[in-house]
Amino acid sequence: MSTQKRKTKTIKLLLWGLFVVGLYVGLYIGEKPLVHWTAQGGWTFIGPIAIAFLFSFVHGHFTGEFWDWLGIKPKLSGDKK
Fold it and tell me: Where exactly are the transmembrane stretches of this chain (predicted)?
């Protein structure tokens, strides 16, 4: 793998990792207002569901970049190795 490609993969990994950490910090800091807001009733229950989807999306991309950075790829059904 070329040095430039490795640097690009490392930068992508770090950016997704920072995004994940930022989400966790934001959730930790904003826990009380979020709980208060969702306790209002009505459609506010969608907030935590949307946050869960966002966490899933961002963490999934970070995990994918991590495995790609390590060079580990899934074996596809057509692979004969």
Answer: 12-30, 42-62
